[in-house]
């Protein structure tokens, strides 16, 4: 007999309960077990809920009920989710979570505790919503070294960028529209500054490389500085601008990870991922490029990933799956400024420089550094503004090069996605 | 201790051995077990093989060796693979197979035998090569009703169609190029007539709907009748032509399945899948559209999927996973001619009809049937030729409508992919 407690009855929590009951027969068939939700924990009252007797407000009822073998944590946020999940695992209850903040900050520790207590800690829904990614990376690509991961991991920013690219709506109007449509929150910081995407690339990098990658160690830039001018320049280079979370193993055995808007070539499978959709490209040494695409958020997609985890846990109660990574001492992420790649650069030049003399100066500096430059142009490009792609070089070298040219000032730069 | 026998040392077999030994340490870490390949079965001699002592020619050595707990079947073809796999399962050995013909023809039976003997029968590599699809559909989307599956399941035909679309190469030249590059076999029938794609959609449909769908029951058309004229007409409708295997559940509880070239809108994620790449779109009731993209064939991608299955079997020896479907009495697939959808039609008209009078006749017949028509055009469209999309209606009704217009003759028709 499997009895479940759902902690959190917000969007994902209520979706989880809905998807569970819609599929209950099917789930019992798939697991071969009598399975039901016993408790729904939330501090709020839900007088209209059809699950009246299941609603509780006291976490200890879950912790102390030996019947409960699976706990679903869909509260979000670090506290009290961390304390609750930790206690459940220590008490021999498997946990399924959709909480990317929790997994990104405490994954290694919680996975270790789960292992010690021979229970499972699953979190398929924490990255990519309803897109299968954690388990495929862990199981199906198990015979691959993961060379690189690059993903559009945040639907809100992808919606905003899509509006900027397709409809030439500027950033603030696109953000306002996203808020109006419910895609962005009133305080959109976590989305537009890339923190949400950062948590997700940390989870994927930890999974791929076996060591915990902490968000604080990953350089993270959002999309609030991207302008319609950048969109136009990108287009002239046959690229779109996407917020990309990427991770790869470096030659020194560390992990290079970054979240940043990037120029993405039309040729890439990620270029056509529009609106609130997400996509994650995984490059394995044997399998080559594999892309997973779908809705990265939303009540039912996320809930269905949570319920899929529940089914998997219910099938193998007390078997610790090997999904795991170890804690790291915080010296695992390489300095992003040393990674060699191509960059998009927008700059201004002051009189007495003309565009031609500015070009010449930059071309000469690039030639000295042994790197290639391609000039970009846009409609109504004003005197005093230039843009180009340059590569391949480190950001350190790029900055050194740009700072060494009096009269020319870098105003914006983004990496060019190189896979 | 896990000991493996690999049956078949062709492209996938030698790739499997290569990927296994490259990852051996990693695999032992992931499974927590001492694991090695003991036998490689093939009727051929491999005097230069570094695995001299492992090569054997007698299947009974595998069957009768109690040390062997996992058998990898990468021989291809129905016989003797079927007999070998069946015997292994009956003798309590788990089997991993990349053999789509075997799974499409004998999947239900072999899954039943595996279950009866408490062993596993896995076949991730049988569909989509290195793209994770079987396990994600089975596990990650377990909380979804699968509304529809549509996939580009054959790399050879996708390469040929890409050449026709991008380079305006005609079908025979594109096929010759594919053969030259090793993408198509000397006898390309299984690929270009859709039989390979048909086996794969049968496997996916069986998995999604729980009943064995046999290739003989699925209507299957290849791409050999697709012309550059069709490519041009499709383009004027903002579509590309792709060979699509699709399956969905019908309202009468049966399964509608078909393999056919189809018009695919530029808006679809499948439209940008080019060259030898495959992609599978799965639409779940909760998760919406999810797409899996990658290399659908090739030595290392396929081998890495085989080895991933081996890792999974090794982790849980003797635990029967619930991946399964039941046999069907052959009355599970709906008549494809009853499925209502839009179609692309190319037709000729004879004097005294003019293009305009032909249009008028067709428009009137469509109006009578209550369906919509859009005329298509192409450069250098000759007198006597017309093309259009029409929908939504069944193929039965389309044929009835077209046969009822003297002087107008349908020369080609394809479905328009409707998701």
Query: What is the alpha-carbon Rg of chain A in Å?
Result: 24 Å
The number of strands of chain A is 16
Assembly state of the chains shown: homodimer
- Give the helix proportion of chain A (percent range): 25-40%
CATH overall fold name of the largest domain in chain A? Dihydrodipicolinate Reductase, domain 2
Describe the structure.
The structure is a homodimer of 419-residue chains. Chain A contains 14 helices and 16 strands. Chain A is of the alpha/beta class and 419 residues long. Chain A folds into three domains: 140 residues, NAD(P)-binding Rossmann-like Domain (Rossmann fold), CATH 3.40.50.720; 162 residues, Dihydrodipicolinate Reductase, domain 2 (2-Layer Sandwich), CATH 3.30.360; 76 residues, Ribosomal protein S10 (Alpha-Beta Plaits), CATH 3.30.70. Chain A has a six-stranded parallel sheet with strand order 3-2-1-4-5-6, sandwiched between helices. In chain A, strands 8-10-9-7-11-12 form a six-stranded mixed sheet. In chain A, α4 runs parallel beside α5, α5 runs parallel beside α10 and α7 packs across α8. The longest helix of chain A is centred in the N-terminal third of the chain and has 17 residues. The N and C termini of chain A lie far apart (48 Å). Chains A and B meet through α2, α6, β12 and α12 of A and α2, α6, β12 and α12 of B. β12 of chain A pairs antiparallel with β12 of chain B.
